[in-house]
């Protein structure tokens, strides 16, 4: 029963966060909502007793979104002051209290509720992390290797593009330096 309620709460919060990502005009607000949405997605893994995947979801996407924050602050004008217009403080406070109560209820639900059976049957003596390894390196070996190759190609491409841009930037900087030396 508690798992169903937690599922619907996480589903509504995830959809809400990604809705903010799509509709927000401020890049930093969109990235914050993206981080929240990814954390709420990890809640689904915790509901399914896949704690390892839930933690990996949080750690990996938190790191990726921190990099996205850095790029967002470099490319967008985030130095200007953001003025908040809070129309009703009572609504904000009541939503904050309600969300805190929901988080506490969701975290306490496994203590009272029944366990949800995972998609794959458990093998005696094999834990959650070992089962992920078994499935990943048997059934999903080819997609796993293709994803690794694609990430490697993307990393090499990013390095090549960055080095080309750096060469152009250094060439422009050398021309400006020559102009300064000659007094132009």
UniProtKB/TrEMBL annotation:
The keyword Glycoprotein does not apply. It catalyses: a quinone + NADH + 5 H(+)(in) = a quinol + NAD(+) + 4 H(+)(out). Pfam families: Oxidored_q3. The keyword Acyltransferase does not apply. It is found in: Cell membrane. Its main location: membrane. InterPro entries: NADH_UbQ/plastoQ_OxRdtase_su6, Nuo/plastoQ_OxRdtase_6_NuoJ. One of its GO terms (cellular component) is plasma membrane. The chain crosses the membrane at residues 6-23, 28-48, 54-71, 91-112, 140-162. GO terms for molecular function: NADH dehydrogenase (ubiquinone) activity; oxidoreductase activity; quinone binding. Its EC number is 7.1.1.-. Gene3D superfamilies: NADH-ubiquinone/plastoquinone oxidoreductase chain 6, subunit NuoJ. Keywords: Cell membrane, Membrane, NAD, Oxidoreductase, Quinone, Transmembrane, Transmembrane helix, Ubiquinone. It is a multi-pass membrane protein. NCBIfam families: PRK06638.2-2 (NF005167). Belongs to the complex I subunit 6 family. NDH-1 shuttles electrons from NADH, via FMN and iron-sulfur (Fe-S) centers, to quinones in the respiratory chain. Couples the redox reaction to proton translocation (for every two electrons transferred, four hydrogen ions are translocated across the cytoplasmic membrane), and thus conserves the redox energy in a proton gradient. This is NADH-quinone oxidoreductase subunit J.
């Amino acid at each position: 029963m508690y798992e169903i309620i937690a599922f619907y709460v996480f589903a509504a919060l995830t959809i809400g966060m990604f809705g903010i990502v799509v509709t927000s005009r401020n890049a930093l607000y969109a990235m914050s909502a993206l981080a929240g949405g990814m954390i709420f997605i990890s809640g689904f893994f915790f509901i399914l007793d896949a704690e390892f995947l839930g933690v990996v979801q949080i750690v990996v996407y938190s790191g990726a979104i921190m990099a996205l924050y850095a790029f967002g602050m470099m490319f967008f004008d985030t130095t200007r002051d953001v003025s908040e217009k809070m129309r009703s403080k009572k609504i904000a406070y009541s939503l904050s209290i309600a969300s805190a109560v929901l988080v506490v209820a969701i975290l306490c639900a496994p203590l009272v509720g029944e366990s949800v059976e995972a998609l794959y049957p458990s093998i005696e003596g094999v834990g959650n992390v070992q089962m992920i390894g078994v499935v990943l390196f048997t059934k999903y070996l080819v997609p796993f290797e293709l994803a690794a190759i694609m990430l490697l190609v993307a990393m090499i491409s990013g390095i090549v593009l960055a080095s080309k841009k750096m060469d152009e930037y250094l060439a422009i900087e050398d021309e400006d330096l020559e102009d300064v030396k000659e007094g132009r």
